[in-house]
Amino acid sequence: MDLPSAAATLLARANGEMRAGRHVLALQLYRELLQQRPDMARLLKANILISQRRCLATPDNCVGQAQPTPLRNDGIGAVVLILPSGLSTAPGWQAQLQALALQRVGVRCLIAVPDGTHDKASRCLPWIADLPQPDVVSYTMLQQQATYWMSSAFPDHAVIHAWCTDAAARQLVRELRQIEKLPLVIHVDTRLRHALALTAPNSGRLGAALQASSLDADVKRFCQDADGFTLGDLCATPLGQALVAEASAMTVCPEVDERLFYPRPRNAKLRSQLGVGQGDCLVACQLAGCDGNPGTLDRLIASMRGSHAHGCATTLLLIGTEHDQTTAQPSPHAFVKHLDRVFRAQLPAVLAAADILYCPDNTGAAYSEVVTATLAEYFAMGKPVVAPRSLLGGTAAHRTNAYLVDGDDAATLAAAWQELAGNAQLARSLSTEAVVFFRERIAQGAETNLLPALKQAWLSKHDKQQMA
Length: 468
Description:
By secondary structure, the chain is α/β, with parallel strands linked by helices.
């Protein structure tokens, strides 16, 4: 969207104030811009709603303004988040952002990470260190101090939120629940969702799905002991829909750190350093997204070759982040650039150099309504997003807020690069609508969205105890 300089300056200032946490000022600026540019009503009203809700969640930002009523925490006093990996990984970033949102409404948070990943240097998100940080311990540290945490440090109405079903996590949860019978909420991650959805896609009950699955017997028992489930990624598998219908699961939208991921000017400096012409089409893809389906990376590189063969100068930028454990490694090609060990805080600036952001489907199954954390960040960047229809087809509309491809074969992808590179109007429209999609479908749902699931699990546990 091309804006006059005054409107563009005002919008940039409003976005900056919201990222800085000054939500009242951001709200005033968005409303002022809405009066000037009613044609931007759809985008601005979404931003206004987000600002209003964050004012309610963070009343300390409303200095000098009428004090709104803080969001209630629904009686939940504390949460133990048990992660499958360290803080500087995708689950770690998501857990930290969720913990910060919970602590803003008065919920104390403790994050437990596997032994060997407890790095004090990454105990908090460095760019939001001015906010209260959650406590972070290793599995062993929590086991050694379990009595203190369960009996003394935590207030009433505490809940355990397990992000994985690994053996070490199961053992830790069981030890904690021997001390205090806390409600257990299990996050249905990609691996667990995949196992359940493929083995019992039409099951209306979790128990039947578990029994039909090939999961380890102990994992089945662990899941059956849970008081609730969270479904990430806005997924809508038949099993997920059944779980929600039977009131044992709730969808939790991905959290996006908007102090990092927001529409930025094109990073011409990085393009120059990479040797990419300003008129060339640069497609960015994170290497971690190429795991899961064999040949994804080879087909992606082949699509660059096909695009070049049709006269479209296209370059692939493969991004490896600081703690990737991906097995996918690119081989040298003239039209492939590779940046390895990109730190989290640097990632948005790297993405800003691209013309297109591509997210492969590495789930191995067609969920049709999935917005992963990576996709959510891509939409927040305000760039054309390309993704397989199998991954996003039930959520986004083709050529409206994303460019959906039927499969990831080289010819299909090459055609997508060529159309977006040759159709500036379509590219601009997708960029604008990406931000609208993020505001309306993702950011609004991510506002303290974990609380209802935790409250539901606590009530379920309470009801079971009353009936016993």
